[in-house]
Amino acid sequence: MCNDIDIGLLFTNPSVRQLAQAIEP
Q1: pTM as predicted
Q2: Are 1 and 9 in contact (CB under 8 A)?
Q3: What is the C-alpha to C-alpha distance for residues 22 and 5, in angstroms, rounded to an integer?
Q4: Residues 9, 13: Cα–Cα separation, whole Å
């Protein structure tokens, strides 16, 4: 699943992780 890979990359990237935190309260 491409989504699975995307999620892994997001968690690996600190910048993306910050973005996710901003999106999620």
Answers
A1: 0.33
A2: no
A3: 21
A4: 6
Cα dist. 18→1, 6, 7 in Å?
Answer: 23, 15, 13
- Amino acid 1: pLDDT: 46
Spell out the per-residue pLDDT of the chain, length 25, in tens.
Answer: 456 667 777 667 777 777 778 887 7
> Which CA distances in Å does 8 have to 1, 19?
11, 14
Contacts of 20 (CB under 8 A, 6+ apart): 10
What are the residue ranges spanned by the domains of the chain?
Answer: 1-25
